[in-house]
Amino acid sequence: MHSKAGAAVISIISNSVLIVLKVFAGLVTGSIAILTEALHSALDLMASVIALIAIRRADQPPDADHTYGHEKTENLGAAIEGILILVGASLIVYEATRRLSDDHELQSLGIGIAVIAISIVTNLVVSAFLGRRAREFDSPALEGDAAHLFTDALSSIGVLIGLIAVQLTDEAIFDAIAAIAVALVILFTGIRIVNRSGRVLIDEAPPPEELDRIEAAITATAIPEMLGYHKLRARRAGARRWIDLHVQFRDGTSLERAHEAAHQLRDAIRAELPKADVLIHVEPESSRREMEDSPFRWG
């Protein structure tokens, strides 16, 4: 499973198995916290399926209707994953709060504790795997999926503590408290994922340090005919970066030489950011005043 889609398939398989185990354990024990974990895993499964669809769509080449490609599908998929998490967390809070006033009895807690322990280990292993693949492919969808599973592992630890507390004290209220704690963790994760994905969907600029790397690549390229550059802009879409800038050349520079120099700059930027699509607008020396008045970055 050395592809993005293969990594997403592994996540789907692990979530499917954990859902079955958690539902079984929840029904046997009567634990709202374990059933909450089953719902959490169901949301993770939906997120994994969305991630797989988004990844396959994002990898498709540009077409007549999507001339810039389909990379933003990954960011859209991640945003949908985050929304699903928020909905699920809200349902958990409602049910757990209602259970606080119920005097329900838990049974066979050993089974529940064993299932949750298995869930913790499984999610930590799969989350670490997906995290490595997300960094390797610069994939927002896999990154979101890995975050889901890691959050699931953390929430499972809370449930495990709650179940142990119930077993030691015979107080079922710890079960509902654990479920609420899980929901709060899930809410935080959902908000973070929606926020990060939304910023990309509205074409927010990359982090300042990334723009600094682009500028460093430009200034390090020795082109005698080049006077400067301005209107440097960049945006993200999935794993790809879209960069454009205006470059000013000395009067007398031939079109052929300016074209060649623009390709040098493009290659220098791509050496720093391999998945960048670079567009360079060539300008003559007489445009100096426009360059100095530009509100964008220039050097």
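(the above was protein one; protein two follows)
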Amino acid sequence: MSDITIRPATPGDLDHVHNIWYRAEVEDFPHPLPKGDVPAIFYHELDTGRMYVAEAAGRILGYTALITRGSVSYLAELYVHDDAQSSGLGYALLTHILPPVRSNGGRLVCTLSSDDPRALALYIRAGLTPRWPHYLLHAAAGRLRPARPVAVDVVAAQPGDPDLVRWDAEIGGRPRPADHAFWIEHAEAAPLWFLREGQPIGYGYVQARSHEVALWHPEALALGPLGAHTATDALDCVLAAVAWAAERAPELALGLPAAHPALPVLLAAGFRITYVETFVSTRSDVPFDPACYLPSSSTLF
């Protein structure tokens, strides 16, 4: 590792970053979709977070990105080129980006680990502890079986609605207006309120252009973030969001923590598990309830 330089990323590095991400995502699949343009999320992470690349002899071999919002630092990216797997480069990137935040007043650092045992071992060695499984779900809208009916109305919110941004900060555990703006502008997300008897019980987004979902399901709508103050309301809001989205797209995708009450209901309705991640963190007292909060993606959790 002595010939490796870890440095802050620049816009000129993002083509290489995109290539590493794409290769990692499609390595086990014989017929992936074309790579396409650099996703807007990488520019967003570069502009509003901290991104580093690992370089040797002018070649970028890995990268990482950390998004800090309020008291939460989320590791949004950690990828190593397949030529440099199992070389210690991932650990070098991780320990390079984590110390400044881990020593800052007990700040929570967390991420979603892939199902690769090497990745989970890497995070555990760096001081993060596995907390719960996180399930990625997909369904063909036309094949969904009816879930239990819910008396919840879905109402469009105004983009940038300060009340919706406030609800997300309360339920998701950190203020992040820049991410709300990103979802609307770059993910073509519809902001929604969920009402019972005219009163809001939850908020959410349905994204038309989630870069992670689009790689495998380009016609799918992605649900999240979506949250409520109680688990009962969270279940009703998710079911209402699924019904709303199923009328507008042929496929749906979302990710759910193991504790979320919508998980067994959606599986019974016809969603299937496509991937299992693990939520890991430096503290057990996370600032959100996994029974009440459905994240945006594994990048902007």
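Reviewer note on protein two: The domain at 5-130 is CATH 3.40.630.30 (Aminopeptidase).
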